Amino acid sequence: MSPSLLPASRILGTGHYVPERILSNRDLETMVDTTDDWITERTGIRERRIAAPDEVTSDMAVAAARNALEMAGLTPADLSMIIVGTISGDRPMPACAVYVQQKLGAPNIPSFDISAACAGFIYGLSIADQFIRTGHKKYVLVIGVELLSRFLNWKDRSTCVLFGDGAGAVVLGPAEGTSPPRGILATRLYSDGSLADSLVIPGGGSREPLTPELLEQQRNKVHMSGQELFKFAVKSLVSCAKNVLAEANMTADDVTWVVAHQANVRILTQVSHRLGISMERFVLNIHKYGNTSSASIPIVLDEAVRSGKIQPNDTLVLCALGAGISWGGAVVKF
Ligand code: ACO
């Protein structure tokens, strides 16, 4: 490994949390004009989790964070920064991250949200890596969390069947001292605002302040052009994975596990084919949780770590794409 590729930061702990309530495809059949077969065949999703009425986004984030801190052998007092990837925080203002900081009882450290939808966790990981690389921060908590069930139109079958609630977290710390070197080898981030309206919550911001009429039209809920996104996702996830691997001086042959955003198993099948990495090397849990947006990568990562599937020194390629359109990838020597 050349000195320029020496990792600065390493994942010291992972954690996740999903709400108890399961909403199955069969349950959805009673709510909208859909079928278990359609959802399973078109997406790979069989069920998803839905937050309890008294549960808020930061509650889920804190539960995932505590698990990640425990695995890292650290406490909230050790943290020097909290980054939360979310588009469904507790409130439009302030950041979900400050509620996480308060509930964890962490010191008065910088705590902020990243609004990059499904790519929010990768964005957070990349930002945390930069702060650790420059020596400004030591232990950074990066969370992906979404409570999208409160931002869905439950009468729109083209969106409400896809998403679920949950949270995942990692604690990043300095990579020094590992031999062979382990940690984040490369990250890449992208956006294409020309496709901003293909996945959007149109109402509630400065462009469409909410009125009773707009609420009636569900303008405060997720609207999506699924097909347009599908094609763009396949193309962009493939080129992103290739670019970030090249930056780490690696190819698809070096990858032990692909830890990709769980949006649609058909997207991942096409990505697998085009990358030349078999589906057996993709970690998957979309059948259980649906698309949990920014939470999907840290949740599937934590499950694979805790089950022993992902082992120390495995080479992981992470990649995600979502509203923005924003996307990104990372290569991690775990
Ligand atoms: N049940 C039954 N039928 C449905 C449903 C449903 N839940 N939803 C749509 N249909 C119908 C449509 O109305 C259409 O009917 P028609 O042919 O009579 O017009 C038919 O099924 C086919 O619809 P398509 O939209 O062409 O279906 P497609 O195969 O494209 O699958 C899907 C739709 C699952 C949304 C897919 O396009 C997709 O996964 N897109 C990408 C989503 C994504 O990756 N989003 C980005 C990440 S999410 C984030 O950032 C938060």
Molecular structure report:
This protein is an alpha/beta fold and 334 residues long. The protein has eleven helices and 13 strands. The protein has helices at 25-29, 36-43, 57-72, 96-104, 120-133, 157-160, 212-216, 226-247, 265-275, 286-289, 296-306, and strands at residues 9-17, 21-24, 47-50, 81-85, 111-114, 140-146, 166-174, 183-191, 199-200, 223-224, 257-260, 315-322, 326-333. A five-stranded mixed β-sheet has the order 1-7-6-4-5, sandwiched between helices. It binds acetyl coenzyme *A (ACO). Residues 34, 38-39, 42-43, 117-118, 157-158, 161, 199, 226-227, 229-230, 233, 263-264, 267, 291, 293, 322-323 line the site of acetyl coenzyme *A. The site of acetyl coenzyme *A has 23 residues, from α2, α6 and α8.
Summarize the structure.
This protein has 334 residues and is α/β, with parallel strands linked by helices.
